[in-house]
Every structure is written in C-alpha cells, then in structure tokens.
Amino acid sequence: YTGHCPPLEVQRNDKLLWLWEQSRALYPSIYMEEVLRDSPQGRRFVRAKLREALRVAELPSAPHSLPVFAYTRPFYTYTLKELSQADLVHTIGQAAAAGAHGVVLWGDVEYSRNRSNCQKIRDYLLGALGPYIVNVTLAAQLCSRQLCHGRGRCRRRRPDSDAYLHLDSGTFRIRVAAEGGQAHVAVRGAPARRHMQHMARDFTCHCYQGWQGERC
Asked: Which residue stretches of 30-185 are H helix?
C-alpha cells in the first residue's frame, strides 16, 4: 500500500461536496485488518484515510471545518483478537496526532455474548486499551492547553511524520488502581519542559471556531 488515496477517490469525494455541505461531522472508518497487524502498511492505510477525511472536512463553505471522528474497533476486523500496542498507536494514536476531534470505538453483540467474551474485554480495557486511551487523551489536552491556550487542538506539523501525542514516560506514571471494588486508570506526573519543547516542534494548532493565529 502506497499510503495515498487513489486520485479517482479524491475526485469522487470532491464531487460529493453537496453531501459534505449538509453534514455535521465526518466519521472515517479506520478498521484494522489482521493481515496488517504491526505493519507499516497498516500505519500508512490509516494515515491516508484520516488525511483524506481531514481534507474533505475543509471543503464545505462554512467558516470552520467539519469535526472528524475516526470510527474503529478495539479488535481486528471480524475477530475478537485485540489490537496490539503498536496498532493502538497506529489507529487511536494516529487519529489524535492527525488532529481528529475524537475516536468512536464500537462493537456488537459478540462482545457480550458470553462470560468469557465479557471477561476478555474487561481484561483488555484494564490491560492495554484503557491506559492507552487515557495516555492519548491527557496528552492531547495538555498539548491544547500549552500550545493553543485551550482554544484549539494539536495536529502534526508534517502530516507524514511519526510524531504522536503521548505523555512523557519519564515524568508520568499510568497504572490501573482498584478502589471500592472498582478498577480505574490513575495518572501521576507533570510535564517536563523538554517534552513540551518537543511537542511545540512536532505539532501546530488547529484553532476552534472563533479563534485564530498560530497559538489561537
């Protein structure tokens, strides 16, 4: 896979301007096939879909771009095999770094068909998935506050870069804690100046409606 949308598909999306003009948001699917597990092709595939959705979001004549929410599953397509740590980065992490407004994780009745499946999902939430979602969410919020005064969201300066919105593992600790019989993800730490400098180098601001300027 080249990592680029075919020109014909771009032309087709341009011809659908009438539809984008009537849309409130865009929901590109970034499902990961198991055959793409931990591969550069999988990373490029998701990146290209996000990039095209963000391009289309700018087409309508409204004074602001359409919100983009990437639509995905916590498992490889048509399976109950959990996304690897690398593919969580390639999907959820890449959506955040590209500047998407959010990610929609969905499933179906298979997730709760039996006790074994329910336990599998719980273990995944408390193992890799939950802590990673918290990591990316807090990093995106931190970048927005520090770089954009909370009036915009961060996105890569270079769309083809491998920069991600992650908390600094040297100054933050993420762990699963249990209180009162309920498990939750707890975070402790503070951003280091060096890490914020790296964020400013790799990311820029996309201002929310009503704000503008390099740092909104």
From this structure: 40-57, 85-88, 94-98, 115-124, 130-148
